[in-house]
Amino acid sequence: MRKHLIFTSVLLVVMSCSQKKKTTTIVVKNALDIERSNETVELTKSFLKIEDLSQAGVFNKDAQQIVLSQLVDQDGDGVDDMILFQPKVKANSEASFEIIKISEENKINAPELCYSRFVPERTDDYTWENNKVAFRVYGPTAQKMIEEQVPGGTLSSGVDAWLKKVEYPIINKWYEKTTNGTGSYHNDTGEGLDNFHVGVSRGVGGLAVKIDTSYYVSKNYTKWRSITNGPIRTSFYLEYENWDAAGNQIKESKVISLDLGSNLSKFTTHIEGVNTVSAGLTLHEKDGEVTGNPENGWVSYWQPHANSELGTAILANKHTFQSYETYSTDKKDLSNAYAHLNVVNQQVVYYAGFAWKESGQFNNKQDWETYLNSFSKRINNPLKIELLK
């Protein structure tokens, strides 16, 4: 009997040591003098040294509770590569989290507020949204219709803004009522509307290449791939046919993502053929005000819009943002405010988005610029993640 007890005791010690060895703990450090929230932490399998994330969750060790997380299959091979979560970390502080195995019973069920999809019922839009804003871009069928003079097409690589004023998803609802004839997303019935004109402009964040004093742009996207939807992030991949910029052959593809709580989409663009690109904001009737802060890496356009006001912006980190320019011309839709951005190792990362006064999120231009300065401070001082051994 005593031998059995000793054996059991040793076994428990071995099991305990084994369990401790398998525990994966991370520390999230905030070096700023402001509380951090609504910022997404990305944890890859390679960083965590975990082979299988399929049942992974995140446990807040300080609060002793499971927090909302999202698994992402980044490369589309059917295997989750990354886990996302948005920690709350006090100023000049740190917080500890553990990667745990969770079941369906203790998993947090949250609405899929970050959502995107290809929209074949409306030509071939690709549209995305979160709980704050919504956007869309245009595909090859819409381009072909213009080239063949078929009504209803769109030739533009600009980014459209859908002005929503509710936190729940509206994409499917708006498309359904427009395509079945029961309504139109051009009319506001309490949720917002699409009354933002893009045309051949850059809209909110469309890309251009400046050669001498002229701007060159691509046509519509040619390929797409959805990456993820969920409570924390939506992301997708777009590819463009190679295009010419005054003799420079440009090769362009990008991943666009939008996180919960953010008014700015993130554009991670792979581009070959140039060392500098320009992301633009349409100036519409040119009755608004272009402002910028090169030190904080942003340019913004605040304008009257219908019976309200609208602010748009391009923002990048201090190593990417060069300068900004107001480009004005008499040619329709070609007047834009541009952010000039450095391409590093054939990649450029920037953020683009908007603030609609009618949504109640921002009352005026000053509120919007305060948000941009805060956003800049955060991306230039990212949360530091440490894996405890």
Describe the structure.
With 389 residues, this protein is mostly beta strands. The chain folds into two domains: 24-109, Immunoglobulin-like (Sandwich); 115-380, Beta-galactosidase, Chain A, domain 5. It is built from five helices and 27 strands. The longest helix is centred in the N-terminal third of the chain and has 21 residues, at 2-22. It starts with a helix and ends with a strand. The model is unreliable at 1-21 (pLDDT under 50).
Key terms:
Immunoglobulin-like; Beta-galactosidase, Chain A, domain 5; 5-stranded antiparallel beta sheet; mainly beta; 27 strands; 389 residues; single chain; DUF4861 domain-containing protein
Q: Helix and strand layout, with pairings?
A:
Blueprint lengths: L1 H21 L1 E7 L10 E4 H4 L7 E5 L4 E3 L1 E4 L9 E4 L7 E9 L13 E5 L5 E5 L4 E4 L2 H8 L12 E5 L6 H9 L12 E2 L10 E8 L2 E3 L4 E8 L4 E8 L2 E3 L2 E12 L4 E9 L3 E7 L6 E5 L4 E8 L2 E8 L5 E7 L8 E7 L4 E10 L8 H16 L3 E5 L1
Antiparallel strand pairs: 1-7, 1-27, 2-6, 3-4, 3-7, 5-6, 8-9, 9-10, 10-11, 11-12, 13-14, 13-20, 15-16, 16-18, 17-18, 18-19, 19-26, 20-25, 21-22, 22-23, 23-26, 24-25
